[in-house]
From TrEMBL:
Stretches that traverse the bilayer: 156-178
Protein name, as recorded: CD8B protein
Family matches, as Gene3D superfamilies: Immunoglobulins
Annotated membrane topology: Single-pass type I membrane protein
A single Gene Ontology CC term: cell surface
Cellular localization per UniProt: Membrane
Superkingdom to which the source organism belongs: Eukaryota
Sections of the chain in a coiled coil: none
Gene Ontology MF annotations: coreceptor activity; MHC class I protein binding
Keywords, sorted A to Z: Adaptive immunity, Disulfide bond, Glycoprotein, Immunity, Immunoglobulin domain, Membrane, Signal, Transmembrane, Transmembrane helix
InterPro entries according to UniProt: CD8B, Ig-like_dom, Ig-like_dom_sf, Ig-like_fold, Ig_sub, Ig_V-set
GO biological process annotation, one example: regulation of immune response
Ig-like domain: residues covered: 12-110
Organism: Fregata magnificens
């Protein structure tokens, strides 16, 4: 079976590359292993294809019909970092690439790198920025700082205090009526 695991990390997550160029995917292992497998999932063909296995000594074993000119694996001296180099890119190379290690009869997969190959790379989008003002930025004054705090702002507490005062004043006649009703009831009860 296959399962993703935190023992492997892959970078980058996405690659958009131009036809006939080359690219590289990095696989970092948390600890040293006997070697790294590389697989490709093709959405178009709906298959999981074994590409290459590279052992600690750098010896590579390729999958069926996999070109050694196209795929190569380079290990770093730490033996916990491997990179898959893909050259002569074509649309057929589109897919999600996974580095993998074998552990306890399972293949543990990295997070995956999605590769898209296009004939022409899109132009970077231009972000519009507001024109910079010529005035130097000044420090925030105390009054502006008070405005930003919200609850301490006079714009908040003055109307709030006024509304509380109006509410209390509107309760005075109601309290007076209740007091009179209570007194009338008390008088009725004592007259009987």
């Amino acid at each position: 079976g296959f399962c993703t695991n935190l023992l492997l990390s892959q970078t980058p997550e996405h690659i958009l590359a131009q036809t006939n160029n080359k690219t590289e995917i990095l696989c970092e292992l948390k600890k040293e292993h006997a070697g790294v497998y590389w697989y490709r999932w093709s959405q178009e063909r709906q298959n999981f294809e074994f590409l290459v296995f590279s052992n600690l000594l750098g010896k590579a074993t390729y999958g069926a019909d996999i070109s050694q000119d196209k795929f190569s694996v380079h290990g770093v001296s730490s033996r916990t970092s491997y990179s898959l180099h893909i050259s002569h890119l074509h649309a057929s190379d589109n897919g999600t690439y996974y580095c993998s290690i074998s552990q306890s009869s399972q293949l543990l997969l990295g997070s995956g790198t999605r590769l898209g190959v296009v004939d022409v790379l899109p132009l970077p989008s231009k972000t519009t920025r507001a024109p910079l003002s010529k005035k130097p930025v000044r420090c925030i004054t105390k009054s502006k700082a008070a405005d930003r705090k919200g609850a301490c702002s006079p714009l908040v507490w003055v109307p709030l205090a006024a509304s509380v005062l109006v509410l209390l004043l509107s309760l005075v006649p109601t309290a007076y009526r209740l007091h009179r009703l209570r007194r009338r009831l008390w008088l009725r009860i004592h007259r009987q």
